[in-house]
Amino acid sequence: MIKIAFTGNPNVGKSALINAIAGSNLKVGNWAGVTVEKKEAEFEYKGEKIQCIDLPGVYSLSPYTLEETITRDFIINEKPDVIINIVDSTNLERNLYLTMLLKELEKPMIMALNFYDEFEKLNYKLDMKKFVDMIEMDVVMTSATKRTGVQELLDKALVIAKETKENKKYTLLFDKCLEEAIGEVKCKINCDEKLQKASEKFGLDFLAIKLLEQDKHLLEILKTEYKYEEDSGILKITKQLEDDHDEDIETIFAEGRYGTVKGILAKTFTTSIKSRLDFTDKVDRVLLNKYLGLPIFLLIIVGLMGTVFNGSAPLIDWVDGFVNDYIGKYVSMLIDENTPNWLASLVMDGILGGVGGVVVFVPLMLYLYFFLAILEESGYMSRVAFLMDKIMTKLGLNGKAFVPMVLGFGCTVPAIYATRTLEDESSRRLTAAMAPFMSCGARLPVYGLFTAAFFGAKAGMVVMSLYVLGIIVAILTGLVLKNFEMFKAEGRALLIELPPYRVPSLRVIIKSTLIRTGSYLKKATTIIMGMLMILWALTYFPNNGDTANSYMAKFGKTFQGVLKPTGFADRWETVAAIPPSLAAKEIVVGFMAQVLVGDKEAQDVEEEVNDATTFIEDTVGQLAGLGVAIKDSIVGVVSLDVKGLFSVPDEAEIEEEGSGVVAATKMLWTDELAPLRAYSFMVFILLVVPCVVTLGAIKQEFGYKFTGFIVGILLVVPYIVSTLVFQIGKLFF
Amino acid sequence: MKTLVLIGIVTLIGGIALKSLYKMLKGESECSCSKGKNGNCSLKDKCKY
Which of A179, A341, A625, A716 is the most buried (most CB within 10 A)? Predict the structure, then answer.
């Protein structure tokens, strides 16, 4: 097996390049920090088994953040056969700094100059022969999105991997003063048995430089694993260098490396006046404007939600009809007078009704993931972190902490792992405590159902308010928690790369959308179906279909009193839906479909069975309906009525909306406070403990005790906020 | 006969669904980290979405 490690700065297209090479589906995005842990892809090429390891994007190899530690430790400990250093060819100076650091590790390397298509567009010129000579490794021009140079890169990497079995020596090209200091330390290493042994693992150059830099992480390893005692001689050399340069030792080495990079580029690289950054700068002047930045962000979310809801509505109606009228009709043909009642109920209400209720929202998820992918790919998402920096500073954090929170809009699990990009443990804890309040994709079907039932055409506006409320509650929680010792973050200044704006690649967007939506569909037909079957049993028994006296009803009724101030607990169904939503939030929708649609659905299906249409006629009818739904969906996206999102819905409008599960949910509350009760319930679902997988991620990253603490917060906060929403809201009704 | 077919289908899909649920509750889902901290975590690709 040949092990290839891919490393480079954040957002240089590492994951995209691996996907192009290995045909895998690693997540890509035009923002830094998409990969926070190493990921792997395996495939066969020319008879060789190849393992590609996607390391997190890093700017340096200092052990200050987890991703830097992961990358450095992997290269040192796992000894990849070859490293592919991916470099953004349109930003050579910054990217080559990491190359200089990697050379210090003395591993076989090859460089991929990525975004070559953009490099050419910008009319940049690179004297390749001279560049290769000076950088001392093979260089291949690549474009991961256009898939050019990919095969050449892989072929060359394989040759290097097979040929180079030993450490490879590079010329580091520091100034004379630093070279002498490194030479002196190397002498000391060679004279010390323990250090000599360590140099076999770390490489002589790397060990010498890190000893001079007083790298704490490495010194700790040397002390524990090699019983090394700090050498006052080396400390003296470090001190001397600092005095001579009037800088700290890390800055001295950093300047040395940048000096080498500048020297190489001065001799090989010519730039044109035209710059890609001109366009980005112009756009950023508006999008990151001190006063306009945040309002524009809110407008983008309003537009996004409006488009998602308007566009998906006709398709949701079609899927609803497809599941209930088409699939329901043919499934019900398997049921006759000999079928036991419990089995008929399990099939029609438990499985078809419940899972159907969740599947109905596939178009909603499809649209959400499509537009989120556009935002991610364009480079706008990392700007959100910058916009939030001022607010986050008040919590002792910086805008970088908002990156995991933005990830939380998709799924809270990667958001928790993404806290690894933060520098200190307190910042990580505080961000992990705030991230679950961001509204993840799994909650959207719940909003979809309740807004369609109670808010009609204004659904997009209501959902946007929930997203914003999640951000506000996260910040307020952070403000409270930062007063506790374990959450006192160090408040470092924001240092984040803002990638240039790029026209999103349609292929990447479609792939990302299909994988995410496919994942939702798979979840609906596995985990959610399993849970809904259990819930069906608990609502069917012990009184054979008498839902109101079932185990679930008894459970719901037991806790109704406690949750009464929230306004939604006057119905046991909403109370009983909360605990199972711990498995997956979408279960709320399936459960509502089971307990509310129930008999009505069965009757409808029975009527349909009497329908004399043939299978072919039904199929043609469904396909024709799909065509109309797609046309209406496109019209819904194009003619987005943003103004309409802000107006108050009238009753007639609400009455028109929905069928199946939506119509049944509408019957939950019929009093004048119905929309307020529904909103309070959605707020509770927004803020309550996320799924068990998220809790597993928190436990793994921070331990049981911290997870218990977070669960406590995620039970108390939704209770308080839902109660406030309902009680204050009542004053205006 | 129809009932037997129905029971067979329900058992099959129910079995698969309940097994997925059990695996998730046991912490073996796609989005769980299988090893430990410091880079050993191997999340499956789909989890990242």
Answer: A625
